[in-house]
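@channel sequence for tomorrow's demo:
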Amino acid sequence: MLLESGDVILLGGSSEILFETDEVEEEEEEENSVSSGSSASINAPENKENTKAKGSSSMMLLAGVIVGVALISVSVAGVVYWRSSGSKCEATARITSPDSGEILTKETDVVVEVTNSQCVQKVVYLLNGKEVASSSNAPFSVSIDPQQHGDLADGGTHSLSVVLVDGKGENIVQPNAGIFLAFETMATPTPTPVATQTPIGKPTAKPTQGKTVSTIETKEMGDKLLARLLGGNRYKFDPQFWVEVNKRLPEYVSEGYYARADKYDELINVSYVIEQNVDASLGYILAMSRSKFNPNKQGTEEGLWRMSNDFVSNNFFNGMCGTETIGDASQNCAAKASALYLKAIYLNVFERDIIYSVAAFGMSPQEAAEWKASLPVDRRDFGKIIKSPKQREEVIEILCCGNRFGKPRQIRFEKRPTALRTL
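structure tokens (generated this afternoon):
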């Protein structure tokens, strides 16, 4: 038999137990209700904060997801655009002829070497960034006539580059395929001015001038000079270099050079050839380029070869001078010191490399050797290696003098010193 709420249990007639289940459950429920209510009221602020925090976190998470999706969309779009806008043709090209630095005087073929040409439909040639020619047939060569580009015959260099075009018309730029060229057109004859009579006074005598030497003629004479001095011209000079030589050449075309040089003919031959076994013509050319055969002192430098007494003494180049100095009028000491110095850098350091010997003029033999060690093994491209304006100027002047002594047909000269008759 089960007890129900309200039943009484008698214990020995003196005690009783009342069984009430409903009330206990209700009390428990009330207690639970009170406890739950207290707990809820105590934790209410915390629950609100948690709810707010959870809401903020959810919003931030949602925003992050949206931004991430947007970035992914942009990236995908960018990748799709990049992949769809470029050419898939892997062809490359380079201009093999003419050489960079050449001066064009007549119509010249431009030869290009194209690899993986199966996908190439056309090769476009750009002169200073503007299209001047194109070819759609292998080997994609074209010709350029300087007469059609007379505005570029300005003594400067101009870039010639190529762009490949694939079968879909997409451009394949070739950033390393370009070269630099100079243009020279046929000179327009200068009108002969009409002579007018001066009623009073005597006419002033003017030196006779021959035909103007062009840049290309200057280059040809320079190449021949280097071939004689070196047993072959192995240097590359940019067109602007020869333009500078040509501009400076008139400085060495005035009368009197040979007369002044002839005074030191025997002296230079003895000091250079007999005493040091150095080509005497180098002594003449250096003296002409550095002083124009004027031994007067300029600053700390003096003598025909423009050296300082301190430099000569510190390097013991005056060992054969006795009591003489490089500033003496006889120039005997200057010739001996310069021959000894040139032997040190020309024969011993640069091993008959006249161009770099001239560029190093003014350095001690030790400094010249250290400079040589810093240069690349292949030193043919002079313009890319020599960056010093002073060294470039030294070489320009030596070639001006070499061309002067080379006796171009267009210029009139006097008697040539003995040492120069082989040039």
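heads up for whoever presents: The two ends are 146 Å apart (CA to CA).
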